[in-house]
Design goal:
Layout lengths: L6 E6 L4 E6 L62 H9 L7
Antiparallel strand pairs: 1-2
């Protein structure tokens, strides 16, 4: 689900880029054919067994099928340490050749 209440936005990597984390996987084993991954508002998703046939809302999160998409990957969170280039340059400016 791509609704704001079902996602989380995190800053990741050295460049601190925004990554959307899909917290709600309403039907992780969906096998509908012809649905393009990572595209919302695909009318074929109404035929997914996770959707209520009466109103097109998801049985799991209650959001409309137009807010859903196929996600074909899982994200794994890991922690990495990065050296800030500005800090490194400031240290290098104040470090003598002998200290290096």
């Amino acid at each position: 689900c791509t609704d704001e209440s079902c996602i989380e936005r995190k800053l990741v990597g050295k460049e601190r880029r925004q990554q959307i984390i899909y917290k709600e996987h309403c039907h992780p084993t969906c096998h509908l054919k012809g649905v393009s991954p990572e595209v919302t508002n695909d009318s074929r998703l109404i035929k997914c067994s996770a959707m209520n046939n009466n109103n097109g809302n998801c049985k799991s999160c209650s959001h409309h099928y137009t807010q859903h998409m196929h996600v074909t990957y899982e994200l794994e969170e890991s922690t990495m340490k990065f050296v800030d280039d500005n800090v490194k340059n400031a240290i290098d400016e104040h470090t003598t050749e002998k200290e290096k």
